[in-house]
Every structure is written in structure tokens, then in C-alpha cells.
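EI: anyone free to look at a 337-residue chain?
SC: sure, send it
EI:
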Amino acid sequence: MKLKFSKLVLCVFLMMIMLILISFASNRQDVIKVSYGHGFMEETPHNQSALKFKELVEERTGGKIMIEIFPNGQLGSAREMFESLQMGSQEIALLPTARISGFAPKLQLLDLPFLFPNREVAYQIFDGEIGQSLLASLEQTGVKGVAIYEDGFKHFTCNKPIRTLDDFKGTKFRTMESPIIMKQFEALGANPVPIDFAELYNALQQGVVDGQENPLVTIVAMRFYEVQDYLTLSGHAYLGHVLMFSKKWFDGLSADIQKVLVDTGKELAIWQRQAVAAEEEKYLQTIKDSGTEVITLSDEEKAKMKEVTRPVHKLIEDIVGKELLEKTYTQIEELSK
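SC: here you go
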């Protein structure tokens, strides 16, 4: 009798274990694992916003979405990550507009030189009808654009002082693989050399190019000031990143999870922009402390550069449409009053 009772207890125990394992396996199947990649280092506001995105999405979905962050280009170049989004092998990425222009030509509107007078105007364009229209243009590529994040206004670094328009002559500047940006440097009188971002530090160090352009956050994060003698504060163009999802993956999610992802992405775009802006004085001090000479471009020289680069704007007219370009000019003028 005792033996039968023991066998019964053992059977009940084993059944309970099986039920627990089945329940656990079922719950594990409900968890959606997500890869989020970008090209910035861990300490940047870009990565901090990614970590906040992970925290908030996991909390707001009750753990149904689990996100792993891959900073510093661990998942590949911007082009490679974009292609991974298209295929659905990567779910989320934060990528610069200029480096995906081959996939989404209309986003080049944001890369035009001397377009935005300040951050506040730029943000209103991004979050308004024009920005949303540009993000929507990604849909046809198999990618969902969510929000425009910030690198900030770009400045020049070089191993010779850049104080005037004439100083660009004969100077080799690294550029992204963006026709608009390359034409900008040609208009300034420099020689544009497209080099992958991951190779830029070595290219500067070895003298393959004389200079480059980037926002302060990038110049400090990538330590370009270590291999450049001069920084010219020009604010000549804006560099933005787009938070984007794989459409193939996103379309297969429930409506409530989709809403959490989109709402959280837009919410953190505002946080990330503020974080970048707040850090810029610290970035500038880091560059000065390194011994790199900081030059502030005069209004007169900035006006000359704006004039010679204005024809570059015409190059994008056929891509975005004359109507959208003129609408952008009009709204910027109105918002600047």
C-alpha cells in the first residue's frame, strides 16, 4: 500500500513539474526578442536613449518585448543595418539620414547646408508635416520611420585653420557617401573623399584626408580632436538620426505593442535631443583641453559659404519635389520670425 502511495505521489509530482515546464515554455514563446543597433559608443546620449527605450518598452509591454542593445556598430555599418531591417533579421536601428540616402533619397532634404537657423526651428520641421512626410517615405523600402533624433549641427575639424572660404581650396575632406554632402564640399572648393565612418579616425591620423565635418558629440565620442589641430565652429548643416523599425517585423505585432513602440520612440526623441544639446558645452571644453584650437566662423564668412553652397539645394529638387522644398523654405522662414 505504501509503495502504491509513493508511486502516486511521484506521478503527481512529475505531472506538476511537466505542467510548470509547459507553462514556462509557453510564456517564453510569448516573449519577443528584439535587436536594436546603432553606431554610437556606450556613453553617448544616443546609446542612453536606446537603453531608456529598452527599459520603457519592456516595462510597458509587461515583458512581452525583450530588447538587446548593440552599440558602436556591432551589427555592421549603417548600410548593413538598414538592409537587415529590410530583411527582418534586425528589428530596430538608429541610423544617420545621410548614410542611408541611397535607400531613402528624400531624407537628404535634412542634409542641405545652411538650411536650419537653429535647433528649435529644426525640431518643429521634424515633428511637423514635413518631417512626418519624410519618415513616411521609408515605408516603400520596407522600413518604418518613427522619429528624428539628433547629432546636432555640424562643424569642421582640420589640420589647417579654416577661417575663410578660401581656406577650403585644395583641402581633402572626408564625407559620407551622400551626393548632397559631397557637392557641398565641392562648392566650398574642397576635395570630398568618401570614407566609411569606422575608418575615419585612422584616415585622419594617417593623413589620408585633412579634415572632416561632424557635430560635437561625434567629434568627442570618436576622439577626432586627438588627430586634428583645429575645430571651426560653423554650424553649417544639421545631422539627424532616424529611429526605424523593420516593417516586416513591426507589421506582425499586435496593435497595442505597435503603439507602445511608436509612442516610446517619439517620446525619447525629445529626451535625446535635449541630452545632446545639454552636453555640448562639455564636449567643447574637452576639445579645448586637448590642445585643439577652436575657431568661431565669422558671420561674414558664414554668409559667403551659404551663398556658394546654395546651388546644392537645387540638386534635391527633383528628388523631394519643388513643392516640398519651397514649403520647407516657407515654414522655416515663418518659424524663424
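EI: The radius of gyration is 24 Å.
SC: 👍
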